[in-house]
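The instructor's notes for this session suggest beginning with a concrete chain rather than abstract definitions. Hand out the sequence below and ask the class to guess, before any prediction is shown, which regions might be ordered.
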Amino acid sequence: MDGDKSVTAAFFKKGITLSSPVGGENWRTGTVQTINWTYAGNIGPYVQIDLLKGGKPVRTITRKASIGSSGEGFYSWHIPAKLKTRTDYTLQITEKSDPAYTDMSDPFTISR
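After discussion, reveal the predicted structure:
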């Protein structure tokens, strides 16, 4: 019986995970890059995506991207030309209706 409980608990687990960028990428300003994520459970219809530099917020990329479908979502981001070249950018994705569901990439580079 205990095995049934763990399978059920795993099946209904909620969460969101960034799958791109994961860290180490070099994205160039002026290009369009795809931010990808996976999710599990019954989470809300939208996510917010934020750009951080050295752990501090730089800008909100979007406040209302569709969660996606079938456990996967994506957002096409046009990287602004005015961003400075740095190796310590990270992305954070947060489920809008419950901010406890969030994930952050490892550091990646944005260059010109």
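Then share the key points. Residues 14-111 form a domain with the Immunoglobulin-like fold (CATH 2.60.40.2840). Strands lie at 15-20, 26-28, 32-40, 46-53, 56-66, 72-78, 86-95, 102-104, 108-111.
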